[in-house]
Design a protein that fits this description.
heterodimer; A: about 450 residues; alpha/beta; six-stranded mixed β-sheet; 11 helices; about 25% helix; B: about 260 residues; mainly alpha; globular
Amino acid sequence: MKPAIDVINVSKVYRRYARRRQFATLKSALLDGSLLGDLQPDETFQALKNVTFSVPKGCTYGVIGSNGSGKSTLLKCVAGITRPTEGDVHVDGRISALIELGAGFHPEISGRENIFINGIMLGLSKKEVQRRFDEIVEFAEMQDFIDAPVKTYSSGMYMRLGFAVAIHVDPEVLLVDEVLAVGDQGFTHKCLDKFSDFRRRNKSILLVTHSLDLVEKFCDEAHWLDKGVSKGEGDPKKVVAAYVMNVEDSEEHSLAKAEAARVAASASETPQAPPPDVDGERAPENPVDDAETARDGFKATEGRWGTREIEITDVSISGPDGESGHVFQSGDDIKVHMTMTASQPITDFVFGLGLFNADGVCVYGTNTNLEEFQPSEIAGEASVTFEIDSLDLVEGTYRLDLAAHKADGYPYDYHRLLYTFRIKSRVRDVGIYRPAHRWKFAGGITFKAE
Amino acid sequence: MFSSLAKLGRYRALIQTLVVRDLKARYRGSVLGFFWSFFNPALLLFIYTFVFTKVLPSAHPAGMEPIALFMFCGILPWTWFSSSLLESSNTLIAGGNLIKKVMFPAEVLPMVTVLANMVHFFLGLPILAAFVLYYQRPIDPLELLWLPVIVLVQLVLTIGMALFLSALTVHFRDLKDLLGNILTLWFFATPIIYSVDMAPADMRWWLNINPMTHLMRSYQDVMFFEGSFSHQGSLAVLGAGSIAVFLAGYFVFDRLRDSFAEEV
């Protein structure tokens, strides 16, 4: 299928004109005879360098990076606001860009009229705006103020109205630049719901944000830009971890820098360390995943990374009989046992576990930080056991994330989807989670006794 | 260039909406509202009438009575022309937010400026018509059919120049100030407050190469002077020239288009 957004080898060079002042004046141009010269750039600034990625239909794609990394330039290139200096951008379908909310609102005229004008600017016809009008007003929570001039709106109202119009353009491709901070909690949830709705309808979102949380939770894939250069792409957790590490790296003093570099190197050297305990019993991997892994370490949906200051040396999953195994019954009590070594005493540590079903849906995730264990110290050999009294899952194959990391996400040892086990069940119920339950019947209902 | 020209048709609704917005916003909050569009030219006409009948009664030859009405025939379209150019030179910079942050066809902005000013021009016409009737100028209703043609020629010419100026002002900000002076000069170099016949013979040649001369004479012929309309030839040449100016303006605009988002 044709991807929704195809960015092929895009570079963007910004030109800087006129060495002396910001704008050339016609006078100087005529006096110096430099009319044509002034239209030539004096210096250039490379905002993007050979960035390539594609966003499949229905995918939510996050772009992260520090300030000045070229994220917004990338978005503008995709939106068609600026043209890339080199390379090509193809977008399939109508785009709506949430870059500047309410750009083009005229302060003197009413919200009602501005909705029409803004909608038409964003590519709707007058009839289409008419049809969506009530929905837009309701979404923006502006029923009472819609006939007041826009200049009387608070900045929140302004943004909400801008957001409501832009999102009701009903694009195939939505470009979002850090605009979720436009309302209270309720409004933010509404926006996220709207985004989820988009995904369900197989539309694509390109999201530029500093909120790493949002990328981890919300995106199917992530892309890390650093000074215009693509630093990694793929599984959001992995890309975010790499980015967090890089940010810390740049913050630390030069002394720590050498160490961090070594750490980063070791993390990328062994992105695919074989899981220690999987005695050939692991479910066969998706061959597509393997192909991607070979091409790009970040692309892998499973793997291992981290600094190994705390190294998880052995993992076992055991059932009610206490034996390590890979097949359990639904409702069994399960223990996940990790053995680890800390190369030096460490005071900032969190142990985490994530449980995923075969579709990659997170069934459950927790860590010691979320459950408010205050780390004091880990040194030398240690072990952690995570016990579940009754693992009430429906039948299927499940995979585990196990990790030791700092409270801010800096990974010591992150094992992504490396451990697979199977849950068997007599009942063919569906879903993910099987809550403990019973049926009760009263009146004239009878069932045949088995 | 021609591919983006072809897209212009699709922006019809957008241009229409923005023109209406411009007009609405201009008078929003004022007591008289749209009435200002009638009031301004009417006041101007009264002042001219007063000055040229009471203060300077002999400053014009016979057959030009009332001189104020004659001037008004030229000043109305000239105002459309000059304010269009002045405003459009600033329009890309003022609309910077749209160009930088939204996918927005930039050429719409100067066009909207020209069209909004054209609507003002149209609103002035009833005042002119009222005075033409009041003074019982002997005009031929059939000649009025030429009016849309003249307006169209001026529209194409003005849009062409507006595109050119708006694009260049992004790079040369002082063009705006320069333009103000040029327009003042141009105003007096155009037979608006005098007729071509009043100009010295050796100046006629200069007046003839001024495209606005032919436009103004056409307006004056249709709305003021008696006799049949005799400017078909010069209007045809001017029409062709205007299309050339439009294409050239659009070409320059299209070439500079990519720099707008970065420069405004």
